[in-house]
């Protein structure tokens, strides 16, 4: 029964990913459909159509899928690490550090490559800062790590507000779009796709250890799990995934919070299922959100983070109401 249920779940998720990618390729301000998209992918379309589908829409859709998957898997890992169902990828101030560093680079008028490097460095620096402060007493309990992350995230938020207030008006739109998620310049999906594949496979193979750690450190130590070392690995993996995601598309919220809850509600808490299912579901959700961001007010584009929040908030409230009904 469980095998059949799992098979159906992954079949539905795989079809959802294919449908989301197909919709992304066929939708946009240009009047093209599924037939033109298929023709472009098979090399039977005109040069203009092929350039639009293969060079613009396909890389953007694949980037959206990989980043959504990374955020969802990072959310799963953070919830295990902190043993808190409300944990999500940005909870340790990763996005705040990236935002401050990226906005400073934008304010100085630096190139996009330098902005990406600054965002990545800021994300890692914020994560290391949270970890070093939380470990000030020689150990880092989940509650201490969580509280430290929340406080530093508030500080980064204040710094971000100050930078926006000091920024010239002609730079504000680009800054705000980056802060709310923007895939307009996402044309190189290969690095994030490889990272998603590696992280998903590694977390799936380590699902037994994740299951044990999720039950508590004492039980994990009793069954022989090297708790400290394994927590370091989970911390590094989730932080790296979040930093890459923020560097690639900016801050996109709710995926790392909502998707793991949704998957656990449907499939249970076994991370052999939760991790790969979250990767597929998170990727499909961000592809759909980005497609809507491109097409709702075409040719104008909306920040994709606003769309994920609009989808994520009611979905999360529905999940919470259903979970209370089951108790």
Intertermini distance: 23 Å
Mean of all residue-level pLDDT scores: 84
Write the CATH architecture name.
Orthogonal Bundle
Given the structure, what is the number of helices? 14
Q: What would you say about this model in short?
A:
This protein is mostly helical and 327 residues long. It contains 14 helices and no strands.
Q: Can you put this structure into words, describing what you see?
A:
The chain is 78% helix and 0% strand. It has 327 residues and is mostly helical. The chain has a single domain (63-326), classed as ABC transporter involved in vitamin B12 uptake, BtuC (Orthogonal Bundle), CATH 1.10.3470. The longest helix has 36 residues, at 47-82. It starts with a helix and ends with a helix.
Ordered list of secondary-structure elements with their pairings:
Elements: H1 2-26, H2 34-41, H3 47-82, H4 94-107, H5 112-134, H6 142-166, H7 169-179, H8 190-205, H9 207-214, H10 217-222, H11 227-249, H12 255-267, H13 271-295, H14 304-326
Helix pairs in contact: 1-2, 1-3, 1-13, 2-3, 3-8, 3-9, 3-11, 3-12, 3-13, 4-5, 4-6, 4-7, 5-6, 5-11, 8-11, 8-13, 12-13, 12-14, 13-14
Key features of this structure:
globular; mainly alpha; 14 helices; single chain; 327 residues; ABC transporter involved in vitamin B12 uptake, BtuC
């Amino acid at each position: 029964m469980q095998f059949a249920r799992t098979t159906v779940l992954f079949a539905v998720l795989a079809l959802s990913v294919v449908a989301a990618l197909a919709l992304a390729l066929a939708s946009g301000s240009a009047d093209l459909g599924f037939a033109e998209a298929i023709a472009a992918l098979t090399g039977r379309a005109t040069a203009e159509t092929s350039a639009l589908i293969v060079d613009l829409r396909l890389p953007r859709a694949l980037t959206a899928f990989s980043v959504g998957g990374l955020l969802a898997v990072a959310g799963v890992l953070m919830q295990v690490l902190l043993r808190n169902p409300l944990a999500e990828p940005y909870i340790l101030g990763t996005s705040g550090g990236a935002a401050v560093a990226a906005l400073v680079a934008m304010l100085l008028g630096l190139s996009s490559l330098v902005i990406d490097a600054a965002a990545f460095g800021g994300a890692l620096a914020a994560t290391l800062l949270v970890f070093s402060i939380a470990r000030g007493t020689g150990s880092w309990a989940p509650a201490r790590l969580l509280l430290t992350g929340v406080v530093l995230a508030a500080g980064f938020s204040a710094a971000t507000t100050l930078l926006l207030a000091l920024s010239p008006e002609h730079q504000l739109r680009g800054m705000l779009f980056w802060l709310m998620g923007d895939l307009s310049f996402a044309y190189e999906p290969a690095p994030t796709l490889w990272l998603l594949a590696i992280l998903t496979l590694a977390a799936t193979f380590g699902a037994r250890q994740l299951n044990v750690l999720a039950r508590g450190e004492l039980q994990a130590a009793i069954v022989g799990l090297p708790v400290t070392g394994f927590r370091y690995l989970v911390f590094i993996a989730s932080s790296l995934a979040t930093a890459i995601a923020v560097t690639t598309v900016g801050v996109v919220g709710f995926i790392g919070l909502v998707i793991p809850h949704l998957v656990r509600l449907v499939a249970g808490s076994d991370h052999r299922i939760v991790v790969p299912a979250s990767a597929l579901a998170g990727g499909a959700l961000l592809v759909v959100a980005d497609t809507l961001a491109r097409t709702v007010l075409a040719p104008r584009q909306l920040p994709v983070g606003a769309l994920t929040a609009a989808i994520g908030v009611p979905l999360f409230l529905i999940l919470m109401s259903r979970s209370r009904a089951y108790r």
